[in-house]
Amino acid sequence: MSFLDKLFKKKIEGKTVEEWYRIAVDENDPGKKIKYFDKVLEFKPGFAGAWNLRGLEFVILKKYEDAINSFDKALEIQPGYLEAKYNKEDAETELRKIKTAENFGEKEEKKTEEKNPNT
Fold it and tell me: Rounded CA gap, 25 and 36, in Å?
């Protein structure tokens, strides 16, 4: 039995890597999907595709920094992985929008406080 055959036959909580991957892909709840992809990545930390899909679930949850970290891991493993690169760029854009909106809100709040110091 080859190393890969042994790896795919090894089980976490009674399931193989392939089974966890299928469960992750079929799941609808983003939080659960992340947990299932984490099981896959316990066995196959070099599986760039699983890192990318994990990142997409963080995007759905609007956890852009976690998403970017997952996409970075995918790109570290496979630097030419265009889908992960584009997904990372999209997550970075969304994070910038949030930070810009937060900064704008802070500036507006400060202006209001300056106009009405007693409130």
Answer: 9
Q: Which domain holds residue 104?
A: 3-115
User: What is the C-alpha to C-alpha distance for residues 70 and 20, in angstroms, rounded to an integer?
Assistant: 18
Q: For position 95, which CATH number holds?
A: 1.25.40.10
Say yes or no to pLDDT of 33 above 90.
yes
Region 60-64: mean pLDDT is 97
Segment 78-91, tens digit of pLDDT = 999 999 999 999 99
Counting the structural domains of the chain, the total is 1
Nearest CA to 41 out of 29, 27, 52, 30 is that of 52
**How many whole angstroms separate alpha carbon 56 and alpha carbon 92?**
12
Only one residue has tokens 């570290």, namely 76
Q: Is 63 left (phi over 0), alpha (psi -120 to 50) or beta?
A: beta
